[in-house]
Amino acid sequence: EIVLTQSPAILSLSPGERATLSCRASQSVTNYLAWYQQKPGQAPRLLIYDASNRATGVPARFSGRGSGTDFTLTISSLEPEDFAVYYCQQRGKWPPVTFGPGTTVEIK
Amino acid sequence: EVQLVESGGALVQPGGSLRLSCTGSGFSFSTYAMNWVRQTPGKRLEWLSGISGSGETTHYADSVKGRFTISRDNSKNTLHLQMTSLGTDDTALYYCSFGELFPQFDYWGQGTLVTVSS
Is A95 within 8 Å of B59 when comparing Cβ atoms? Predict the structure, then answer.
């Protein structure tokens, strides 16, 4: 089973700042890595798929990069609505599909 | 508009069984593979099972293999998860989900809560 590790666990930033979130896989998942955003009381929302492709309707301030075992989600300038929990998910080697434990982006 | 509506969650005793359902609308249900994903009280997301559009192929996480059974009725646009031998670790919010790529989760329901407790 591929284990995904996310860092940091908590990221404290102010609106307008740049956020950089990391996801590391225990084995290569090539580029089959997705990112999700979850706000309280809501289901997760797909942001990025296949490492760097934005899902429909996702603002351009969200970008993803990486391949193999190391991936990054960047939010170029945080908007108030971006404070949430972010999860990565791999489908490079499955079953099982696995998710990371999440990174909370909180207001500083 | 794509909609997924889960139902069937409840409070159940350890060792008990439960059947969850998910009804889809706004898309060609039989075209898409479907999944069940749960979120624990600690907010961890765990993929449980997936089923092909035809229903012929199924996949399971080891944690539920032999206890949970995924199925679908394309004539009713409905996905099911039959759960048996439930333990306290199965307490979670259960989502159905599907995506344009498989397995990926572009669309989610609102979830149905399963609580396993005596």
Answer: yes
Interface of A with B (CB under 8 A): 1, 34, 36, 43-46, 49-50, 55, 85, 87, 89, 91, 94-99, 101-102
DSSP B89: G
CA–CA min distance B78, chain A (Å): 19
Phi, then psi, of A89 in degrees rounded to 5 = -150, 135
**pLDDT tens-digit series, residues B17-50:** 999 999 999 999 999 999 999 999 999 999 999 9
**Hey, are the CB atoms on A43 and B46 less than 8 Å from each other?**
no
A103 vs A100: CA distance, rounded Å = 9
Q: Is A97 helix (H, G, I), strand (E, B) or coil?
A: coil
Contact state of A96 with B50 under an 8 Å Cβ cutoff: no
Asked if B95 has any chain A CB less than 8 Å from its own CB, the reply is: yes
Count of Cβ atoms closer than 10 Å to residue A25 Cβ: 24
From first to last of its 108 residues, what are the pLDDT tens digits of chain A? Answer: 999 999 999 999 999 999 999 999 999 999 999 999 999 999 999 999 999 999 999 999 999 999 999 999 999 999 999 999 999 999 999 989 999 999 999 999
